[in-house]
Write a structure and sequence with these properties.
single chain; alpha+beta; GMP Synthetase, Chain A, domain 3; 3-stranded mixed sheet
C-alpha cells in the first residue's frame, strides 16, 4: 500500500512547493499543492505540471489516482482567510 508521504516527497522533489498535503487510503489520493510556479497558469496547466512530477509512478501503476487542488500562494492565503 502506498503511503501519502511518499507521494508528497515525489512531488516536492520536482516542484517547489510552499505547502503540500496528500491524503488517501493507499489507492486513491487527494492533494492540496501550493506553488509559486502556478502563477499565471490555468488549472489544467497546473495539473499537467504536477503530473509531470509523478508520470513514471502513474505509468508503472505504482500510483493509480490523484485528485488535486493546485493553488498559488495568494490563492492559498485567500482560502485560509475565508475558511
Amino acid at each position: 500500500m502506498l503511503d501519502p508521504v511518499k507521494i508528497q516527497e515525489w512531488i516536492a522533489a520536482a516542484l517547489p512547493c510552499e505547502h503540500i498535503v496528500i491524503d488517501g487510503d493507499g489507492h486513491h489520493f487527494a492533494a492540496v499543492i501550493v506553488s509559486r510556479e502556478f502563477d499565471g497558469m490555468n488549472r489544467v496547466k497546473r495539473q499537467q505540471r504536477v503530473y509531470q512530477t509523478i508520470k513514471d509512478k502513474l505509468d508503472s501503476g505504482e500510483l493509480h489516482a490523484l485528485s488535486m487542488q493546485t493553488l498559488t500562494p495568494a490563492e492559498w492565503g485567500e482560502k485560509q482567510r475565508s475558511d
